[in-house]
């Protein structure tokens, strides 16, 4: 069975790319090892640029009702006086972005497949990719598919990346993320993030009286927080935010997972492309992972529109040239933040607090941070 574009992975970036490329007139299919479409309960940050892209796919109106807008981001260092505050008013925007459950985005994107003539093959793990004959042939557990372009949107443990023998760099952040939801007394339509001595702790509003929490805790103490009772853990979070948050009540089970960095050494080669987490994965402290993936989708779709699939070399070189530096720069920034706030040295602490305060007062610096948060 032949297609123009074969996308492996039905997550947000894969589904969005399938719709966008099918709207360009190409015959598109999605292959996923899952038996049914995903319905993730994680919450993601969607910035203004990503919102505009979802709008171009005609899905934003369908997910808007479940999207909670935030108008402010407050970040401070718990071990000093460093503080920075971003707000929509300064950026001349109605809000800075939205917090949305991933499953809501997935459901509405996949709901557009039939309308856009996208074929989907569920429960078909990828086994082999062969491009020796010119065309690219993919063998799944059930059948053989052929396409002019294969796009891996299958996450950090990408089978496409493995089978295409694309090398990558990866390392552990030596932290474990603990995630849960709280009923909150105060959220102020504001993302609150504090850098604690054991790792960054963030509360993101998902409703007027609910927030989702992610705490990236150093591995050498994470077991202690994972094993706490709900009341003990809630008290720890409350203590870290103090008067910033008011009453807290845990309303979901805690989940935890290790944190790793990943960067593929190339994002495209021989008609095989990597998009989103299959190409790059960063620390979640800034909540920019999905938006970086949507940036990949927009870039690749635009290159396909401009060049057509016949000019594969031009698409490949342009995609690598445009997306690798952006994502490496973002990864370096997240690494610098993570390392800077894990330092115990008193002079480093003094410097980072001073830097926060300067950035909060100097308009050009603050504007650059705002652009990163809203326009990546």
Description:
- The chain has 376 residues and is α+β, with helices and mostly antiparallel strands.
- It folds into two domains: 2-65 and 102-170 and 261-337, FAD/NAD(P)-binding domain, CATH 3.50.50.60; 69-99 and 171-259 and 344-375, D-Amino Acid Oxidase, Chain A, domain 2 (2-Layer Sandwich).
- Helix content is 37%, strand content 32%.
- It contains eleven helices and 20 strands.
- The chain has helices at 12-23, 48-56, 60-63, 102-110, 159-163, 219-226, 230-241, 289-307, 312-342, 346-361, 363-375; strands spanning 2-8, 28-32, 43-47, 68-70, 72-77, 83-87, 97-101, 119-122, 126-130, 136-140, 144-152, 168-184, 190-196, 199-207, 210-218, 248-250, 255-264, 268-269, 272-274, 280-281.
- A hairpin with a 2-residue loop joins β18 and β19.
- α1 runs parallel beside α8 (289-307) and α8 (289-307) packs antiparallel against α9 (312-342).
- It is globular, with a radius of gyration of 21 Å.
- Residues 340-362 have low confidence and may be disordered.
